[in-house]
Amino acid sequence: MSEFAQVTIIKAANIYFDGQVTSRTLIFADGSRKTLGIMQPGEFEFGTQAAELMEILSGELDVRLPGEDGWRRVQGGESFEVPADSKFSVRVLSLTDYCCSFLS
């Protein structure tokens, strides 16, 4: 899906790591949420409350998920899931455009 219809967009940006990661929140009619964002090259650790599906729209990063020993390469067109109440790390190798869906 390359576009979303009938959504509410929160105007204020979510800004992390001194602006190296930014996103905007979209709320759908059914109450579900997604964020659309950009990550600059660097290494970052994120915490989650809800489970997430991270779709990498373009760019390239390595991800280390909970319970995994090593890093896994993820490129534009690929995705990964993050369990609820966990932390995960990314090493962003090139400017990365992403869509994060919060799973219930």
UniProtKB/TrEMBL annotation:
Pfam family, one: Ppnp
EC number of this enzyme: 2.4.2.1, 2.4.2.2
Catalyzed reactions per annotation: adenosine + phosphate = alpha-D-ribose 1-phosphate + adenine; a purine D-ribonucleoside + phosphate = a purine nucleobase + alpha-D-ribose 1-phosphate; xanthosine + phosphate = alpha-D-ribose 1-phosphate + xanthine; uridine + phosphate = alpha-D-ribose 1-phosphate + uracil
Enzyme class: transferase
Keywords in alphabetical order: Glycosyltransferase, Transferase
One Gene Ontology CC term in the entry: cytosol
Gene3D superfamilies for the chain: Jelly Rolls (2.60.120.10)
GO molecular function: guanosine phosphorylase activity; purine-nucleoside phosphorylase activity; thymidine phosphorylase activity; uridine phosphorylase activity
Free-text function comment from the UniProt entry: Catalyzes the phosphorolysis of diverse nucleosides, yielding D-ribose 1-phosphate and the respective free bases. Can use uridine, adenosine, guanosine, cytidine, thymidine, inosine and xanthosine as substrates. Also catalyzes the reverse reactions.
Family the UniProt entry places it in: Belongs to the nucleoside phosphorylase PpnP family.
Protein name: Pyrimidine/purine nucleoside phosphorylase
